[in-house]
Known about the structure:
6 strands; six-stranded mixed beta sheet; 43% helix; single chain; Nuclear Transport Factor 2, Chain: A; alpha+beta
Amino acid sequence: MTIRRRHLAVTALLTSAATALATTGAAAQDKDKEKANKETAAAVADAVIELTKAMLAADKGKLESLVADQLSYGHSSGLVQDKAAFVDVIVSKKTVYKSIELSKQTIAISGNDAIVRHAWMSESGGGDGNWTVSKLGVLQVWQKQGSNWKLLARQAFKA
């Protein structure tokens, strides 16, 4: 078979078109992935807000629904609680939160997991009217379980 300039031109044109389509498809996939990550990050941010509200309200049902059964909840003091201990301390009012303010929050999504970092400032006490102000850094790991985001791990540290 004799290859002519016309064949080369058609081949070059087809190659260019295929490359353009592949590039456009990849850009569209990147845009879709970015949109999905933003939506997921928003859902995780909502879960963080709901957990904060549940802690302030000492709402046992809400707390239990927002944290994983495998929860590891680390305090800046080094104390680590499982799910039952975390919920019990709040619901029994051994620790009462007067206020919790989160700032400088970042969320990174990796599949069904999310890493949340924020600054934490709270007023808490034992319910006797004496309040302690805490200013901490916090790292949380959230995991998608079924259709819900649940807190899997949390570690606070002195900021």
